[in-house]
Amino acid sequence: MDKYKYYVFIFLGVILCLINGVFAKDNSNILLSKVIYIDPGHGGTDCGAYYKSIKESDINLEISLKLMDVLKKEGATVYLTRYGDYDLSTPDAWNRKRSDLSRRANIINKSNCDLYLSIHLNADDSGTFHGAEVYYDTINPENEKIASIFQEEFNKNLSSNRDFKENSTKYLQRRINRPGVLLEVGFLSNSSERALLTNDVYQNKLVDVIKRGIYKYFET
Ligand SMILES: [Zn+2]
Hints:
Helix content is 45%, strand content 16%.
């Protein structure tokens, strides 16, 4: 190859790198630098709400695992407080529930994550309530904003007309200093919503709506 061609190749190579760089910047994902902790509520001997053999703890985990997969594909670093049907209490704990929740709070705080989400299902005795709702603790000043964003996404994209609520009495939430909220993604006690929550397609939709909320929070 003569000297001229050699320089043309080098020049084209540089141009390609630059174009690539520009496109890479355009496609750069806001989640690439983010650490997100997902906390599937309950587990082990504590199944949370239930209806016959349907356990809240199982559905919380199913949704959390799906959410983890989706967020990892978007480039986020994602951790779960549990990856199976167990709790985090220490064997010698005098109060198993408190031990479980304290350890969840500790690992989330230590992670220094950018966002945490506790995933739960709601239940009430009448079976009439339905819809996804968000609870936040005032321990972190970001939490109210996060709650309003997720509630807006739930109400816009799911058949929910509920309001987000401050609740600073929850044992776990008031011990987590990282930004985040508790998502009660639906009522297990409501027969129609129960059918949805146990449905794979609806769980994926739910995950997509939660993902939208995550993007919206990091973009604002
Ligand atoms: Zn729960």
